[in-house]
Amino acid sequence: MRMAPSTGTRLGAVRGALAPLVDFLLPCACIACGSRIARGGLVCAPCRGRLRPPPAPRCERCDYPAGTGHRPGRPCLECLDWPEALFMARSAVALRPPADVLVHGLKYEGWRELAPLMAELMERRLLTALDALDDLDEYVITCVPTSAAHRRRRGYDQAELLARALSGRTGLPFAHLLARGRQKRTQVSLHPQQRMANVRDAFSHRPADGQPAGGRDVLLVDDVLTTGATARAAAETLARAGVGRVALVTFARALPR
Question: Which tens digits make up the pLDDT trace of 66-92?
């Protein structure tokens, strides 16, 4: 005997039939440029194509675009005074349109759904650095934590969202290894020396599951690398806690215009 379709099946059919009408009446728009895109998308194909890494040649250590006079194998002026523990940095894209819009959307506008896309690009950039990372399977992923006040205001920590998404893509474990005290001022408008002073003693070690880091190498995740002041302070805290090497991975790298 032929069975009548279930309520769930009928609702699914109705939704499928109405989907084109909904797309017409309520079209989805690219977060970066506002152009119409298919439902379920966030960033259109042209904007994705404009998300590019910092221009080559780049410093082998910090990924900053290097001049023709830079000697390969030696730190550039951007990372010359980085602590030894922070041995490498890689950024998925340069902080230029539309990357700046995505960073702002994730950090200030509640677009959590951007984290998987941004982590996808971070993973691709990371895979180009496998020679420098030795055995990637031995790394643990952690994030540069935001302040408690910012987390309450936003409802989440954008760097943690990126770190967890990157953990899901790579299969590497995620662990909270850092805690952040009260932030004195936002870093956005500060000069390099002010940034260093602003994050001095900002971090403390947070043992994962009550256990110390114990010599593990760490992938330190953040949304943007600007002067490196925050990453330096975080890496120094991790080094004092006994971790191995620290590699910084960010979505974007701020560059001079």
Answer: 865 566 667 788 898 899 999 999 999
pTM over 0.85: no
Distances (CA, A) of 96 to 32, 44, 103, 251, 257: 12, 16, 10, 12, 9
Of 201, 200, 205, the closest CA to residue 220 belongs to: 205
Contact residues for 226 (Cβ-Cβ < 8 A; gap 6+): 187, 195, 254
Those residues of the chain that have pLDDT short of 70 are: 1-27, 67-73, 182-200, 208-214, 257
Task: Report the DSSP pairing between strands 203-205 and 178-180.
Answer: antiparallel
Distances (CA, A) of 59 to 70, 129, 217: 8, 12, 21
Residue 231: in which H helix or E strand, if any? helix 229-240
Peptide bond into 116 cis (omega under 30): no
pLDDT digit string, tens, across residues 216-241: 899 999 999 998 999 999 999 999 99
Question: In the chain, which ranges are E strands?
Answer: 28-29, 36-37, 86-94, 139-143, 178-180, 203-205, 217-225, 246-253
Q: Which one, of 125, 133, 47, lies nearest residue 92 by Cα?
A: 125
Judging by DSSP bridges, how do beta strands 246-253 and 36-37 pair with one another? unpaired
Q: Are strands 178-180 and 139-143 parallel, antiparallel or unpaired?
A: unpaired
**Integer Cα distance of 152 and 141 in angstroms:** 23
